[in-house]
Amino acid sequence: MSKMQIATRDGSCPSYIYRPAGSGPWPAVLVYMDGLAIRPAMLQIGERLATHGYFVLLPDLFYRAGPYEPMDPKAVFADPQRRKVLMEKYFAVATSANIMSDTRAFLDYLAAQREVRPGGIGTTGYCMGGRMSLIAAGTYPQSIVAAASYHGGNLANDAPDSPHLLAPKMKARVYVGGAIEDQSFPDDMKARLEKALTDAGVDHVIETYPARHGWVFPDFPVYDAAASERHWQTMLALFEAKLKR
């Protein structure tokens, strides 16, 4: 793993780069972090993806709020004041407009790397990052050919930047993994997203895991080992089909 700064419209975004062993070029995957930001459990996503032959870019989407210490999800969930700071200081700067502006810089960076195979890239994201993964697929359809979202929230709501509204622009194959217990992605929202993707002719799968929101990461109190491994299987199958053809 190496760490670098990627210049964006609004500053400099700390980003983590993971390269497979051997020599490239390799297909690229852009990982959108969850709302608990960069920490060991998040970095492990990049590490493991690289072992499967992907050049991985994992940017810190909270950079506009300044440096921070790695967050402990269990401590954050147990402390209302910490949750308040998270929402008001960090989530406030991680708007879809800001992150899509940043994504242009991320895509330009990947396109300039000799180690990255030319052609489409894949995206994956968790929680808020799952939402951003789908928005990116609709915002940059010429670049993104595979987009995954795991326990992503608000994927089809009434907001003007709701991901489902971008379905007609998507060209990627889409995979969405929701949870049976997730107030941010209830059944009616799943149905709304399903209809939008189907009506737009998007190649997609939406599945509901027998788990709770946040099940992927071992530092979450709701971590589910079986569901987490299922997430890896589905994500790798998606990228294998679309990025390694």
Oligomer: single chain
| Overall residue-averaged pLDDT value | 95
Q: How many individual β-strands?
A: 8
CATH topology: Rossmann fold
Number of domains: 1
The largest sheet, given as strand count, sense and whether it forms a barrel, is: 8 strands, mixed
Structural class: alpha/beta
Q: Helical percent range?
A: 25-40%
What is the highest CATH level, the class? Alpha Beta
Distance between the termini: 26 Å
| Strand percent estimate | 15-25%
Q: Encode the helix/strand succession as letters.
A: EEEHEHHHEHEEHEH
> Can you count the helices?
7
Superfamily (CATH H level) name: Alpha/Beta hydrolase fold, catalytic domain
CATH architecture title: 3-Layer(aba) Sandwich
Molecular shape: globular
Uncertain regions spanning at least 5 consecutive residues: none
Strand order within the widest sheet?
1-2-4-3-5-6-7-8
Radius of gyration: 17 Å
